Give the backbone structure.
Amino acid sequence: MGVLSEKIVADIKALLSRYPSKQAVTLPALHMVQDELRCVPLEAIREIADLLDLAPSEVHDTMSFYGIFRDEQHKLGKTRLWVCRGLACAIRGGEDTLATLCDKLHVKPGGTTPDGQITVEFAECIGVCEGAPAVLIDDRGRPDVTPDKVDGLLAELRR
Amino acid sequence: MADFEPVLLRRILKNASPSLEAYRGDGGYKALEKALNTMTPQQVTQAVIDSKLRGRGGAGFPTGVKWTFLPKGHPGPIYLCINADESEPCTFNNRILMDQDPHQVIEGIILSSYAIGATTAYYYVRYEYGDATRATQKAIDECYAAGLLGKNIAGKQGFNLDIFVHRGAGAYICGEETGLIESLEGKRAWPRIKPPFPAVEGAFRKPTIVNNVETMACITHIVERGADWFRSIGVPPDPNNPRDNGSTGPKLFCISGHVNKPGVVELPMGLTVRDLLEKHGGGIWEGKKAKGAIPGGVSMGVIPDTEFDMRLDFNGPAKYGCLGLGTAAVTYFDQDTSIVDVLYNICRFFEHESCGQCTPCREGTGWMHKIVDRIRKGQGRYDDLKILEEVGDQIGITPGTTICGLADGAGWPVKLAVRKFRSEFESYIKNGKKTHSLTLVGAH
């Protein structure tokens, strides 16, 4: 038994017809695995490689290029909270928001709370500049998260 | 001159529903009907050439001309890639289009595919745009159900098209068109050496056109209203310069930073940085004065407020030494902002996002980040400004030391900031001034 669920295997296979090469399914497959397992274990890399007729090192090469994927040692919490540190957010207090979040949760950027609930990270510009300072909650943008709104946001995430 | 009436934002400004039904109710997919019933693919391409539309992704290359680089009579497949990896800091116009009026973009994609003979379009969306991705996928699903995608589209025998949304994974370099192609193919997004250009050999080694989201939305309106209409907006080409393509058509401008009204506005190109701030951005916040601005995404450079007469069109920014119009995303900062902090933020970004393929960029962006960091910590050296300018001048495709333009964009704000705000940098170095306005958390 592998680490990929039957559903993920079926979903990966279903995407093969969209592209002229199997390798093109690498990113979608990595996303599916990380969405379900909150990380991409080495065993999953081997299984993806098997499905796509690649060497595991090829899948790992792609995965390690993109900052978004986590290995088993750096598993994501239930919610991934990205705080934008792009210019538009930074000059409107984005870094203060990040500092406040890290202080309240006792984690460094990139870290996860011990209860596995929240991972805090910095993000390069997330494209919500009209609502600076902004954060991403997993992949949904949230505008106007000034330091004074951090408590409310955390309460909401922990509900 | 009468007030310009928004076209790209027309439905968004009235909070129209993004559904297919509502889009059709507003006259949507009329352009597609018109093209399929009355125009050949060559006529669509000719209309785009005549419109003088220049790509909205940053480089401003004439879209119709790009299409003509495809080999003639190619047996296919030909691919269209939609570049929705909008990652240039301070830029968010594509997100708004995809999120709130996805069919306008999809209609442009179908029209463009018809023109260039593509039967598959890959819609490459940056991962961070989750809501926009879902809105786009929903709109695509509606199109399949309504016969606007798939086989024999809208009853046109033999016109087939599939659009597949492909999510990125958080890398700025995927906005470079060959980086995007590599990423789409499932590899690290290392830009390719050109030539061959994608139109000759692109995705999966087949002829490929890569176009921006806003460019696609423009295509919809060019087909619907005609090239003459499009060309009548903005700045016409300079008749004395045969190489100038002008700055035609409606354009989305992103306004951000220390302004009262951040947001996206649609205007003809050619207005000044000052007008954009005062007439559309609500002026600088807290009653303060402006100190400067980033004219088109951070890679285009930086200007002081004394240069706010700069015109925002494809030729204007270069007259002030900037790299170009870029994404037309203008970020203003107030009088109390430290230029060293601003530059530090920009340098940190580029070091983080350099893909690492070319040594001058990989190392140069790191050097610039380190040097600006020590200046802001009061540990700058007298040679530092010279080194910054040297590195800024020597990395990129302009001097010919890198494969793609990321390094040009990394070096440009550095050399412009040092040249245009030299006394402030010198005051840090001479007096050991430090900056605390930005917290250091996350700076690693």
The two ends of chain B are 51 Å apart (CA to CA). Chain B touches chain A through 62 residues (CB under 8 Å). Confidence is low (pLDDT under 50) at residues 437-444 of chain B.
